[in-house]
Design goal:
single chain; alpha/beta; Purple Acid Phosphatase, chain A, domain 2; 3 helices; 11 strands; 30% strand; globular
Length: 180
Amino acid sequence: MKLFFISDIHGSLYYLKKAFENYEKEASDYIIILGDELYHGARNELPKGYNPKEVTKFLNGYKEKIIAVRGNCDSEVDEVVLEYPMMTTYSNILYNGKRLFLTHGHLYNRENLPKLSKGDVLIYGHTHVPVAEKQDDIFIINPGSISMPKEDNPNSYGVLEDDLFQIKDLDGNTFMKIKL
């Protein structure tokens, strides 16, 4: 199974379409969205191609393939227009004998870990900074942001296949990876 991870779309139709070109090229089975789908947030500039209404339509076209969690910029009205569940603070997926703990990152993150077992994986967004590391027998992963990366990082997404998590720029080039 191949999983495709994105975070922090912030209403950018332009970057969402670029990310989904990669989803198609990667031939992934499911799309994991780690929050902040539709809105840019009060502290952020408008991202290129900001169009929450069209982002909603686009994402709804993939509703049967999306697993999503709520970000700090997401609201209950978003779940009214999005045709998939996305208001949970976290979700868990079992993958090759490991628990993938999926969350946005504003509550659980590398500084505030949830209760995880040795070898489990915390995957979050929120910071817009990619991370792939191991901390005290827990894997910590952040695919970065597709629309508003920070700290001179590229716009990015993640792919998990055969226990290898790769973080890639929107041209499909791997720039960070970790074996789970």
